[in-house]
Amino acid sequence: MLKVLLVNDTSSDVNPGCKATVSSLKSLIHSATEYDTHIHSWPCGFGYEHFESLHQESLEKELSLYPYLKKKLKGNLERTNQKLEKLIQKLSKKKSWDYSGRKIDLVAWSSSVRKFEEYLFNEVCSANEFDIVVINAEGTVHHNQIGAITIASIIKIFSENKPVWCVNGSWQAIDEQVVCKAISSADYITAREPMSFRWLSNYCEGIIQSADCAFLSNIFNPSSFLLPSEIDSEKACLYTPGVLAQPSSSSVNPLKVQEILEHLHIIRRLGWQPVCLLIDELHLIPFLKDAEVSIVFAKDIGWKTFGEFIRRFKLVISGRYHILIFSALAKVPFVPIASNTWKIEGLMELLGLDNSQIVYNPKDIVGWLSKEKHNTSIRIATKELQNCKRLACFNIPKIVKK
Fold first, then answer.
1. 110-124, 244-258, 379-393 — which one is most confidently predicted on average?
2. What is this structure's pTM?
3. What is the Cα–Cα distance from 185 to 159, expressed in whole angstroms?
4. Residues in CB range of 208: below 8 A, 6 or more apart
5. Under the phi-then-psi rule, with left for phi > 0, alpha for psi from -120 to 50, and beta for the rest, what region is 198?
6. Alpha-carbon distance 384 to 389, whole Å?
7. What is the pLDDT of residues 45-74, one digit of tens each?
8. Disulfide-capable partner of 392 in 61, 107, 149, 215 (CB 3.0 to 4.6 Å)?
9. What whole-number distance in Å separates Cα of residue 265 and Cα of residue 273?
């Protein structure tokens, strides 16, 4: 029996993309070995409390600035990073800041890692309980966020005695000291899109270019979903905003809500009828109802039927990474909205598309829908799907020996 520990199992999340991704990742693990395999999971968020002191409020400022600057600078990532560095130095009044975020205090981090290791091996598991540790990085490892610090720590702890595979991730702006001292010690690392692959390759050798496991998911089971009666099927547009909808410090950000409503107004003005998919953005419900926007909840749609669900629409406009993948798989034209990292830009490159097609401000939607460029983009994307599926298989090595 091969015992595998799966870290950052996001399948308990209501997000259909997370469920699909983890399902495919587990299938890859089982198919990669001749042994009977038992997978034990640690959910997303496991261990975070041990590193809260290293997660500083100022990093949230940096993260909130990133999408704003990308919009202002029309997606020019080099100029965005340069401008971000200058702004952060001005805010912090410390020259130690750079676009990668504040340098983590290595002494404090090492102390937290030791305490976390004691906790793990005294209260959670034995040091030799698992044969392999697989970490599902997804969108967790960026900007020195607490998830990135925790995952780096888990790699550091287990890599001393066990094979550690850190896979299926987008990587960005992590303190290079942590990358070099911890993440690079993993035995096998994949990056799910080219931008993360290039960034991480600056610090670690042998990085594998992969694609998200969601490309392998079976999302085309029959769906009983029907469009709301007020929606014309020929004009149906599925809209989900992504990070624009995320609250700031547990409170609703009125500027983000205003931008979302502006998106929806433009979509309507151009003749489309939007249906807003809510995954965990329930705070938007009253604003959407006031705007008389139709709403559908992800929890009411099984992830295995999500491909058929998306095929009910003629267009998808989304800032969610996996919804864009599902749209490509379903061959439904899509318009991507920028996120707080370069994962959307990376996905577009992976699909052979131009980053200029990404929405950085509401006016970009006008340009996209008026010129109907999305029809061209989906034809290009279709050609790349087989390659993405092939790359997704690289997230787990083909041969596993106990």
1. 110-124
2. 0.88
3. 6
4. 188, 189, 190, 191, 394
5. alpha
6. 9
7. 999 999 987 765 334 444 445 555 555 555
8. 215
9. 10
The angle formed by the CA atoms of residues 138, 244 and 278, to the nearest 5 degrees, is: 80
What's the alpha-carbon Rg for the chain, to the nearest Å?
21
- Which SS3 state, helix, strand or coil, does residue 137 take? strand
Give CA–CA dist 276/301, Å, rounded.
Answer: 14
Q: Are strands 315-318 and 236-240 parallel, antiparallel or unpaired?
A: parallel
Secondary structure (DSSP) of 342-356: THHHHHHHHTT--GG
The amino acid at residue 326 is F
Question: Contact 153/141 with Cβ under 8 angstroms?
Answer: no
Decide if 15 contacts 279 (C-beta within 8 A).
yes
Phi, psi values for residue 236, rounded to 5°: -75, 125
Distance in angstroms (rounded) separating the CA atoms of residues 166 and 147: 13
Closest by Cα among 242, 208, 206, 205 to 321: 242
Alpha helices (H) in 32-76, listed in sequence order: 57-72
Please compute the mean of the pLDDT values over residues 36-43 and round it to a whole number: 95
211/193 Cα distance (integer angstroms): 6
User: How far apart are the C-alpha atoms of 225 and 277, rounded to whole Å?
Assistant: 13
Asked whether 344 and 358 are in contact (CB, 8 A), the reply is: yes
pLDDT at 82: 58
Residue 161, judged by CB atoms within 10 A of its CB (0-12, 13-18, 19+), counts as exposed
CB 21 within 8 A of CB 213: yes
Q: What is the pLDDT of residues 158-172, one digit of tens each?
A: 999 999 999 999 999
Q: 70-95: string of b/e by CB count within 10 Å (b at 16+)?
A: bbebebeeeebbebbeebbeeeeeee
Mean pLDDT, the chain, as a whole number? 86
